[in-house]
Specification:
Rossmann fold; alpha/beta; about 15% strand; single chain; about 210 residues
């Protein structure tokens, strides 16, 4: 039957897959919103660059002594003369004054092995007692340095140096001031820090050549 021109012509489409209109598509899954980035994981074998080590500032230039070595404190102390102290005492009381000086040193914290006592006249009672057992045992105690050691000034050459030397000028001696001069010279050479002389100030000063 012929169609009238007023009626639209409809054609059947071939059977096949139908395409859903765009408006009919299901909503796609929303993509995640990018957030703040974390530090990238370093790849193996490539260290992450970080702050470099702090470089020390160049040291100040040190002054060198001749020979390239700085003097040690011990060498300076050895070269410095010991401090000299005079305790006025008569010849008969010099030994007692020396014993009192030793007591003061020990009470102040000085170690007994740091003290050497020399007598210019009669032996100290301790030395006389220890020598009764023989010189070998007597000097063995000197070498042990465990206690105060007492000796005659005549054998001061055999005594080793100690930080403190106490001299008791308790006798005139056969040679007078010459013997005292030698005794004080030996004592001063063996005193590391302090020399104490117990005796007549006028006589001691005359031997030393100056007041102490």
């Amino acid at each position: 039957m012929p169609l009238s021109p007023e009626e639209p012509q409809i054609h059947e489409s071939a059977q096949g897959p139908r395409v859903t209109p765009a408006t009919g598509r299901p909503a796609s899954t929303p993509r995640p919103v990018p957030g703040p980035r974390t530090a990238a994981t370093p790849r193996p074998g490539r260290p992450v660059p970080g702050p470099g080590p702090v470089r020390p500032a160049p040291a100040a230039q040190r002054s060198h002594t001749p020979g390239g070595r700085s003097p040690s404190p011990r060498q300076e102390n050895r070269s410095a003369p010991p401090q000299t102290q005079l305790i006025p005492a008569p010849t008969g009381g010099a030994l007692d004054a020396a014993d009192e000086a030793v007591d003061v040193l020990l009470d102040s914290g000085r170690a007994p092995g740091d003290i050497l006592v020399l007598t210019t006249g009669e032996q100290h009672p301790w030395a006389a007692h220890e020598l009764s057992f023989g010189e070998a045992a007597y000097w063995a105690q000197h070498d042990a340095r465990d206690d105060v050691f007492y000796a005659a000034a005549a054998v001061a050459e055999r005594a080793a140096a100690r930080p403190v030397v106490v001299v008791a000028v308790n006798g005139e001696g056969a040679e007078g001031d010459d013997a005292l001069n030698r005794a004080l010279a030996f004592a001063k050479a063996r005193a590391g820090a302090l020399l104490i002389v117990c005796g007549d100030p006028q006589r001691v000063n005359a031997v030393l050549g100056a007041a102490v």
